[in-house]
Amino acid sequence: MIGPANPVIRRFALVLGLLFSGEPRARAATTEPDEVADRAALANVSRMPERAACADTPPPGHVRCLSRIATYTRSGNVPFSTPRGYGPADLRSAYRLPETGGDGKIVAIVDAFDAPSAEADLATYREQYGQPECTAASGCFRKVDQDGGTHYPPASVEWSIEVANDTQMVSAACPDCRILLVEANTTADEDVGTAVQTAAKLGASAIALSFGGPEDDTVNQLETYYDQPGVLVTVAAGDQGYGPSYPATSAHVVSVGGTTLTKSTSSRGWAEAAWDSGGSGCSAFIPKPPWQTDTGCPNRMSVDVAAVGDTSTGVAVYCSDCGSDPGWQISGGTSVAAPFVAGAFTLLGVSSDPSFIWAHSSDFYDVTSGSNGTCSTPKFCTAGSGYDGPTGWGSPNGDALGGRVAPNEETTHDVLDEGGAGDRNDAASCACAIGRVPRSREALLIAIALCCAIRPRRRRPLRSAASVGPSVPDQSASGARSDFVAKMSVG
Predict the structure, then answer these.
(1) Which of 144, 429, 432, 464 is 20 to 30 A away from residue 91, measured at CA?
(2) Measured distance CA(477)–CA(148) in Å, rounded
(3) Cα–Cα distance between 313 and 41 in angstroms, integer?
(4) SS3 content of the chain, % helix, strand, coil (to 5)
(5) Cα 159 to Cα 210: distance, rounded to the nearest angstrom
(6) pLDDT of residue 425
């Protein structure tokens, strides 16, 4: 036991006191005129017919994609020649995102089966909206199989819609991010889980998952797939209303719900409500993580955060592999929200740890109206002030989140791994890596001085892209992280 006189512990306690001093920032108050304007805007949203891209109920041990497509807009099989639905500028406006950022970080998409036209569809989307080229040739886009090679699985029309949705929503949020598409062989839990592990091994800063299935007593055995320290994993919470969906209830991910998003005359310029088909739920099997502080659900509660998901206020997506409906689509589902949040968080440089949202809840737009079904505990399925099931802590507010600079997570994890129990520098290193913003400039300077004085040990950094030798085609993910970084280097 370390006594109170230990000088390192005293410094550590002082740093923590500085970093955590003061009350959490209150959410920006919503004025009564704003509330009136938002209610009117939401009341004017017209519902549109839609369909699920994938079959509603997957067999046991499998997942289904969660993308939804508007259907009333078709005249026979003639697609839109121009986009309908929200584009990148609309989403940047709604969530206060900057036009640039991300610094070439890799956001991975994991889906099942092959989408042969994924790269071409992404190019069409980005050209339409004036975004820079993102192709395999430029080093911005890469597609691999679940083992990191190029033995792609059979193509699927259903999942091609999902792939188009996911890659383009990452682009909408973070046009400077690079995109890695990992295609699982099948929809089996083990295959999509292996694909997630491959994405992490290949250097992803974030991984977006737009699939899920009903919970059962096997989900705890799958948790190792989604436990990827230092990598943000966002998961769509479902599109069938209230009820838990896995892996959205994993303790290692950011669970993302859906909202109805529409323009408003309020000061924000946009109104949001819980989407009536978005997922949420209290897990029956996954223990509650220590950072989740809601009451009522004894286990993991889904969701943590939300973004646009309602197809009636959906986004524009281009898909040429969509069977009888190729072309521009209006897309919805929490499978819009999950990749968008992955891109937005990467753009803004916020922490990959799911606890970040709970520690910085005031940095999100509180969604206070709407419901996704009926349940015994109202806040599990009805939006309200503060935390609720359908929207979590709310939707991203880029103006607030942009000031939250994530720690060097590669260094943070190396320090913890290398130091081990008993290394007295570890506690101080953790304090320096928390990423909380002190309440005054003086407190910040003192915290930096103390952290620098303690000088935590660091591992040797990963080799730079320039130092990596030639790549080997069709290699497995094992040992390929640095090689992939080299392949995806731009310029």
Answers:
(1) 144
(2) 5
(3) 12
(4) 35, 20, 45
(5) 10
(6) 36
Q: Give the three-class secondary structure for 51.
A: strand
Q: How many CB atoms lie within 10 A of CB 154?
A: 9
Which pLDDT does position 7 carry in this prediction?
43
Phi-psi region at 312: left, alpha or beta (left = phi > 0; alpha = psi -120 to 50): alpha
Q: Residue 63 carries which side chain, given as an amino acid letter?
A: V
Measured CA distances, 251 to 3, 302, 354 (Å): 34, 10, 8
Q: What is the pLDDT of residue 433?
A: 39
In the sheet with 315-319, reading across from the earlier edge strand, the strands are 50-52, 68-70, 327-332, 315-319
Contacts of 36 (CB under 8 A, 6+ apart): none
Q: Do the bridges between strand 141-145 and strand 178-184 make them parallel or antiparallel, or are there none, so unpaired?
A: parallel
Q: Is residue 143 within 8 Å of residue 183, measured between CB atoms?
A: yes
- 34's CB contacts (< 8 A; 6+ apart) are 264, 266, 267, 268
d(CA 161, CA 184): 15
Q: Which residues contact 427 (CB under 8 A, 6 or more apart)?
A: 8, 9, 12
The helix/strand/coil state of 196 is helix
Strands 364-365 and 395-396, how do they pair? antiparallel
> 3-class SS at 381?
helix
Residue 176 Cα to chain centre, angstroms: 16
Q: Give the tokens for residue 32.
A: 């009564």
Rg of the chain over all Cα atoms, to the nearest angstrom: 22
CB 319 within 8 A of CB 161: yes
237 and 273 in contact (C-beta within 8 Å)? no
Distance of alpha carbon 143 from alpha carbon 225, whole angstroms: 20
pLDDT along the chain (491 residues), means of 10: 42 41 45 91 93 87 94 54 91 96 95 96 96 96 98 94 97 97 98 98 98 95 97 96 97 98 97 97 97 95 98 95 80 97 96 96 96 95 97 97 59 32 36 38 44 40 34 41 46 39
The encoded tokens of residue 401 equal 């989140």
Q: Are 38 and 264 in contact (CB under 8 A)?
A: yes
